[in-house]
């Protein structure tokens, strides 16, 4: 803390941006910022771009929204402390030890049959609070998937790795209820330690709300995806997007019957191209894509899929060597590239001035910090 304090006092930065506030070094840095009245921001645990664009609600896609603006967070410190202390007591009353034993018993079930993979999420994650219009909690998701899974398919729910740090009673009530539901069905399994990448590669379909597993699926497995939330990868034509709860069984059935079509496979590759070579470099937030005139001013806003259709045929996806590198995971997706120029027929893009898609890379790596 002292070293952080002295460094900040000498540098006097306008703001401090941290990858995560949970690590001890960042916690002490956050305290030092507060003492010196320096604005500081952090993302929740997730991948961070080399260039991050701020707006009124978020930092990039996985950014932490300003929780002070949410009425749920405007509670007295004393009440919050009491709730947490009561949670420690209540988790023992809920029978956590025996509950975990039941979970491990369920986890040992074999899954040799076809199965649907559903990663569970932490619902008080800010992106789930803000971008999950259909699903309020994981119990609702579990029941929804079980109720509408066709016969002949198992279901594998995987616990979120960060849930092991959750100590409050609300989480344990939710977990106990999910295990209780799972025990009623022979075709339902809850796992904790199995490889998510392996499950993605083996599953018949993948169902999620807003999990970053959807992004991992694009460059590691490409399983058919059913999306219930307003996810970053939604709306590009390679996922089965659910617009209302009544639509879920239809989309799930389509995903199981059709799988990933050749057209979807193509669009997945094109999205990855845009993601690594355009979005990470320059940045656009969610839906709107700016078209600039000669003076550099925004002349119109074009929806991403429209631009996407213009340039789809001309993109040289092979430059990324996606097929060769996808097995190596996110960290090795791109090698350091000294210079790269996107091959695009600009005549098909109205008013395009080459602002975004031409870029130079020097030792670029997608997981480097800001």
UniProtKB/TrEMBL annotation:
GO terms for biological process: polysaccharide biosynthetic process; polysaccharide transport. Pfam families: Capsule_synth. InterPro entries: Capsule_polysaccharide_synth (IPR007833), TagF_C (IPR043148). This is Capsule polysaccharide biosynthesis protein. It comes from marine sediment metagenome.
């Amino acid at each position: 803390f002292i070293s952080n304090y002295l460094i900040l006092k000498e540098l006097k930065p306008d703001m401090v941006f941290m990858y995560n506030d949970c690590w001890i070094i960042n916690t002490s840095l956050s305290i030092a910022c507060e003492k010196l009245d320096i604005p500081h921001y952090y993302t929740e645990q997730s991948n961070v771009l080399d260039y991050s664009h701020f707006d009124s609600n978020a930092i990039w896609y996985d950014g932490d929204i300003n929780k002070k603006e949410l009425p749920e967070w405007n509670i007295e410190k004393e009440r919050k402390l009491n709730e947490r202390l009561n949670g420690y007591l209540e988790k023992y009353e809920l029978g956590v030890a025996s509950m975990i034993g039941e979970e491990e018993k369920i986890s040992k079930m074999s899954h040799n049959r076809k199965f649907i993979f559903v990663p569970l999420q932490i619902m008080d994650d800010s992106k789930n609070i803000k971008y999950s219009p259909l699903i309020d909690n994981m119990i609702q998701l579990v029941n929804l998937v079980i109720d509408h899974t066709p016969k002949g398919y198992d279901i594998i729910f995987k616990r979120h790795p960060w849930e092991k740090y959750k100590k409050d009673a609300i989480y344990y009530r939710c977990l106990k209820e999910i295990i209780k539901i799972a025990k009623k069905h022979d075709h339902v399994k809850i796992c904790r330690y199995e490889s998510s990448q392996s499950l993605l590669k083996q599953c018949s379909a993948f169902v999620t709300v807003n999990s970053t597993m959807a992004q991992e699926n694009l460059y590691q497995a490409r399983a058919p995806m059913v999306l219930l939330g307003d996810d970053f990868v939604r709306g590009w034509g390679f996922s089965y997007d659910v617009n209302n709860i009544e639509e879920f069984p239809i989309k799930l059935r389509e995903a199981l019957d059709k799988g990933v079509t050749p057209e979807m496979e193509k669009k997945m590759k094109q999205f990855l191209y845009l993601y690594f070579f355009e979005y990470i470099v320059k940045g656009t937030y969610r839906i709107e894509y700016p078209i600039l005139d000669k003076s550099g001013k925004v002349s119109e806003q074009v929806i991403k899929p429209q631009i996407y259709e213009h340039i789809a045929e001309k993109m040289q996806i092979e430059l990324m060597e996606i097929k060769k590198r996808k097995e190596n995971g996110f960290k090795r997706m791109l090698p350091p590239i000294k210079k790269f120029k996107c091959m695009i027929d600009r005549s098909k893009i109205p008013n395009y001035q080459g602002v975004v898609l031409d870029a130079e890379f020097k030792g670029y790596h997608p997981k480097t910090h800001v």
